[in-house]
Amino acid sequence: RMEGWGSYTLPTGTEYRGALRDGMFHGEGELLFPNGGRYRAVWHRGVPAQGEYTFADGLEYKDKKWHYCDGYDRRFYTEICFGLKPAGISQLTNLDPPRKIPEGCYDCGDGFYNPETRVIVDYKLRFLRNA
Questions:
Q1: What is this structure's pTM?
Q2: Which of 53, 86, 112, 128 stands the most exposed, by the fewest C-beta atoms within 10 Å?
């Protein structure tokens, strides 16, 4: 079984880097997600005892007093850090510059949805799933 310090890549592409004991995450370690997010935690027998999630853009998740994109403040994190765009240059996502969305399609977070074909493709236009 895995012991000591190391890394392990899951079939989903998520990678764990940190302490391992008896084949489980145990001690300090982090999960690195394919989308760029990161979860740093102290693990106990494969279960996180305490941890912090950081989104790909650097925004740190807070489980208490979370005011990001809520009813009081609808700005994206990039707008909070770098200010609002001038009138006429709307920012529709947290990405700056935003992704180019194929005509007639919708961005659904992990790819584009085409209502004519009812198919979702990833951002490199590879098939993900039927809607």
A1: 0.55
A2: 86
